Amino acid sequence: MQITVPLKKYTLPSLLDKLRVIECFEQSGRVLKVGEMLDEQKRLYHEPGVRPPGSL
Length: 56
What we know:
With 56 residues, the chain is mainly alpha-helical. 30% of the residues lie in helices and 7% in strands.
């Protein structure tokens, strides 16, 4: 995977911190629900071509 210029401004720990705040909700007998993601978080997934969590 080639890192794009906007992603180069992050260190690995700071990038993980940005993505870590995505909430997931789980109920027995139901599908895992991913909470709302910020536009910046969506961009961080899409720039390198990574598929974001399921319910986006």
